[in-house]
Amino acid sequence: EMDKVPGTEIILYRFKPNSSQKERMGNTKDPLYFNLNFFDGIPEYHRVGTTEMFVAFELQIGLEAEVNGLREDHLAYEEGRILKAQPLLKAYKEAHKNLKEVDAITSSVPSTLTEKSESQDDMKLIAAVLEGNFSNCKYRALDQREIDGKGTAPISPERLCLNNKRLNIWADQRKAMILDGPFELEPSRRYSVDMMSFRVDTRIAGISVGLFAYFGPYVVQISALFLGYDHEEEVSLIKPGVNFLTMESISMLPPQCDGV
Length: 260
Known about the structure:
By secondary structure, this protein is of the alpha+beta class. It contains 5 helices and 12 strands.
């Protein structure tokens, strides 16, 4: 278990000079600007398309004059670093930039052509969000596996969830239960869930049901759905082409996953 700052949920994992201080340190001068990196409770895992990352926080510490002096050009550097790690976010920003450029030349273009161009940019943006980051990634299917669960006696989850902190709170309050599984998988392979559904008594309502994957000693939420008071007896969490939680067309399990 990771050490936390006493009395808090903060997990410190790195303290280093800011990258802007390399030249100063190269001249054997002490750095004046530092980065303190930490997690809040757990290393929170996120996946968008093929981009997988842990979300952390960064506190920048330094002399006020040093911070202010770097603010103008350093923001551009930080933005570029973040967008390089998150191609989907970069595509989103570029689509919005294109829309603004279209707006700037509307005075000399007939309105019907402008509307068509804006519509095309909107469709590109929507497609990028729904498809995730798979435009340049191809997977070769080795085989398929069908898991037919029968349900188990409800048990309380013991593993922390890396991308749903509410589940961890509910587990502590004995409000979260494992209803089926775990089902073992080969950790050396990558898995994509094509379809997932379950049958539920129509009298059960007001609950959230999800699919979770093992990720080391933790679990990661893959999909989820809230069941209201009017639902079908068979409910789908994932259908071919759409994950109802992420709204992506592919539902990848995390690397080295050995069970769901």
